Amino acid sequence: MRTLAISIFAILMASQTAFSGASVDPVQQAISAEEQQIASLDKQKLKDFFAPRKKSKTLQVERSKEWVDAQPKVSGDEQWECLAQALYFEARGESVRGQFAVAEVILNRVDSAKFPNSVCNVIHQGTGKKFACQFTFTCDGNPETIREKKAYARVGKIAKYMLDGAPRDLTDGATYYHTVAVSPRWARKFARTTTIGVHHFYRPHIRVSQN
User: Fold this and answer.
1) For the segment 166-183, what is each residue's pLDDT rounded down to a tens digit?
2) Whole-structure pTM value
3) Domain regions of the chain by residue span
């Protein structure tokens, strides 16, 4: 198809050259025109690809209780609701900074090939299996009743900001955490990235190949 298009273009250019007397290579001109068009399309694709990432990087969030409480009430879809509930039941007693950190872990898991690829599926992974759930509130047998409305409104805002692209720069890519009150055996297998409030955060060790 490309060869046919170039051939037709070359014939037209050759005819024009015969009348104008100009010294032009019609085949090269056809190829150049097509290459310019492709380059233009590639630039647009790159622009479209990077546009949403630029938008997410500009989202500024202050991780303080006063700032979060001062923001307008939010709502969202099922994924937002799952994240808000997880923050409420797992970290409502934490500082706001600690709640952002727990949200980071959940979203880091969503992005990891080792975990399910949605917020709700990450949070409910193993739910219903004794000692196999990833987040205790989903399998501890206690009813998931939200009684502290103000605390839920706060974590709802945090969930919304994180889903909208707030920076994940608190836990250094952590995909695991536990409270400082316990010392689970699995924690020995991972690298601790930080401690925020009452939680230690971890990620798998990064293995560097030696050539």
Assistant:
1) 999 999 999 999 999 999
2) 0.69
3) 2-57, 65-204
